[in-house]
Amino acid sequence: MEISSIANSIALFNKAQQAIPGGVNSPVRAFKSVGGNPIFIKRAQGAYLYDADGNQYLDFINSWGPAILGHAHPYVTEAIQKAVTDGISFGAPTELEIQIAELIKEMVPGIDKVRMVNSGTEACMSALRLARGYTGKNKFIKLEGCYHGHADAFLVKAGSGVATLNIQSVPGIPHNTSTDTLTAPYNDIPTIEQLIADNKNEIAAIILEPVAGNMGCVPPMADYLTTLRHICTKENILLIFDEVMTGFRLAAGGAQELYGIKADIVAFGKVIGGGMPVGAYCGSSEIMNHVAPAGKVYQAGTLSGNPIAMTAGYATLSLLHNDKSIYNNINNTTQYLKMRMEGVFSQHAMPFTINSVGSMLSLHFGQQNVYNFADATQCNIPHFNAFFHYMLKHGVYLPPSAFETWFVSNAITKENIDYCAEMMVDFCRK
Ligand code: KE4
Q1: Is 147 annotated in the active site?
Q2: Do both 161 and 15 map to the same domain?
Q3: Using CA atoms, how far apart are residues 41 and 27, in angstroms rounded to an integer?
């Protein structure tokens, strides 16, 4: 099957650029690094997206993670449709916020308190402020290639769209903001130890994606997370897991459950809202009771805990909590995808590597191993871009960047994977 026309997407993108910076409301959607015209989506259902020209695409972005159940799952959409008839936003507490907080406490090991916000950025930004407020220290360590949203302090050697657009230094961020941001390569303990030695008793936190997803998918090497946990405990540094991508995806309890590591503060996004704008940061009562109005670390939001967003999140998390076969299914589908891809590309002249954890996966051409951001930047980006467009032309919608992760939804079937493998064989034969 080959896409014949995207004329309406082309017209819409031209129009969009007259009214929206770059024609998009988030840079990664603009196809800047892969080139070409972004596809404008009209609707989505299950495993598929449908564009403004009526073309169908098998979706491996799934809204960059939230659509873990597949698009427009009836249990979620029906809950939203019912909720909106009772009003959209109150700016006052509701019982549903208690229910979703209690459900999250059931699903995620070791947290006592949950504060809802409206994005992953807000969750990570607030988690850092809390760590600084709780410890009284300002410096923190982030890892090269990790992306924690667009708060000033995090836009240093960041992954995702910052890497995709190769923005070395983001204008508008005062130099003194980033002087407290220390960086180290992912999977590199000695550099962390040196930073701590050089900044004794000044570091409030280490924040990381426990499985990195913004330089492609980069898993933690053996004992990396355990060693970080030990170092943080010993040095009185808070360990912050940014589980915006991994949370409720790698397991009901996220990476903390998968790796058996307890972070001091955990940030969530994406799946937690089931596609609606939701983020959260969580931790022990000892730490979270420093958040206003219980404490003095101020953070607020007009639409935090919004009833419609909470309805979508609660319905999504409830399905994941009550049917653990979903995780087995998406993990098995991802392993099947990886196995089929390895079969195809091992016959291909171009070296490659596929990294995956659970239902997160990425393909890197030109490198045997991708253990950190430097490895990821050495990959053959032009070849990835050609692959991206070949698959898009044949109705398979991959993340439009080599610095992103594919997300497998529960709606994707083995037959879908077999089709993808056929298209990949054809790509290699071109
Ligand atoms: P948001 O503010 O976009 O909801 O979340 C920021 C964020 C924080 N932490 C991690 C690990 C993330 O992956 C993200 C956002 N992820 C990107 C995709 N890599 C969102 C897509 C976009 O920027 O449009």
Answers
A1: yes
A2: no
A3: 16
Cβ distance 209 to 249 under 8 Å? no
DSSP run (H or E) holding 240 = strand 238-242
Residue 284: both structure tokens together:
């022990």
Pair 406, 360: CB distance under 8 Å: yes
Query: What's the pLDDT tens digit per position in 233-279?
Result: 999 999 999 999 999 999 999 999 999 999 999 999 999 999 999 99
pLDDT, tens digit, 9 for 90 and up, residues 381-420: 999 999 999 999 999 999 999 999 999 999 999 999 999 9
Any catalytic annotation for residue 53? no
What are the start-end ranges of the E strands in 163-224?
A: 181-184, 203-208
CA 414 from chain center: how many Å?
24
Q: Are residues 247 and 359 in the same domain?
A: no
Cα 344 to averaged position of ligand 1 atoms, centre (Å): 30
Overall number of domains in the chain: 2
Catalytic residue among 242, 259, 281, 314: 242
Residue ranges in 262-366 assigned as alpha helix (H) = 285-288, 307-322, 325-345
- What's the gap in Å between 147 CA and the centre of ligand 1? 7
Residues 191 and 142 reside in one and the same domain: yes
Distance 400 CA to ligand 1 centre (A): 14
- Domain carrying residue 318: 74-322
320 lines ligand 1 (CB under 6 A): no
Answer yes or no: do 141 and 200 share one domain.
yes
Q: Is residue 270 annotated as a catalytic residue, yes or no?
A: yes
Q: What CATH number is associated with residue 41?
A: 3.90.1150.10
User: At 407, which helix (H) or strand (E)?
Assistant: strand 406-407
Query: 178 Cβ partners below 8 Å, 6+ apart?
Result: 152, 153, 155, 156
> CB of 328 closer than 6 A to ligand 1?
no
Would 2 be classed as within a structural domain?
no
Q: 3-state class of 396 per DSSP?
A: strand
Name the residue of 28, 244, 407 to mutate for ligand 1: max ligand atoms within 8 A of Cβ: 244
Alpha carbon distances (Å) from 153 to 121, 126, 194? 11, 12, 21
- Per the listing, tokens 């597949």 go with 70
My answer on whether omega of the bond before 399 falls inside 30° of 0, hence cis, is no
**Closest-CA residue to 274 (of 61, 105, 76, 50):** 76
